[in-house]
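SEQUENCE WITH STRUCTURE:
===
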Amino acid sequence: ELQALAALQPTPARLALLGSASKRLALLQQRAGHGAAAAQTQQQVFAAYAQAEALAAAQGPVDVLLSLNRMAAELLLHRGAGEPHAFNADAVAALRQRLAERRAAAPDFFSEAAGIALTLLQALAGRCLAASAATLHAQFVELHQRVDDAGRWRAVATQATFVLEPYRAQAAPAEKQAADGLLNLLRDHAR
């Protein structure tokens, strides 16, 4: 079992795999109407990515995707309060710096998508997706014009679904409409 392996000999890669599998389980639980189980699984997602990020930091540079996944799970843990959530400003600044370095050294689809995803997470945390939706939409469309690869877009759509579906369930009408628009766009890109 993956959880046992990650507990027995934790590595950033094993913990990230555990986080990813748990993320998909949480999506399925949420869609099946098992909110309490999904919330518990989301805590496991956060724990796995937080531990992976901490282990990676002790070993050297942290992959930006570990940080983004941890932040996505953190966001879901705080969504029930109904109030905006502030990510640690130093962690966000460090992530932006790592993203800039990655784009400068080895630009690729995922480094570009990660920058947009960070903006999305911050908009969700601030409960201001409607105000950011047009910019996010334009950035996703521009990236899709450069990289039209459904397989890569599936990963982006899955990550967005993980945070946008729970968000839209509790959002005001304008926020829900913005979430639906982005989900539809990303799902179209993933086809």
Summary: The mean pLDDT is 89. The two ends are 32 Å apart (CA to CA).
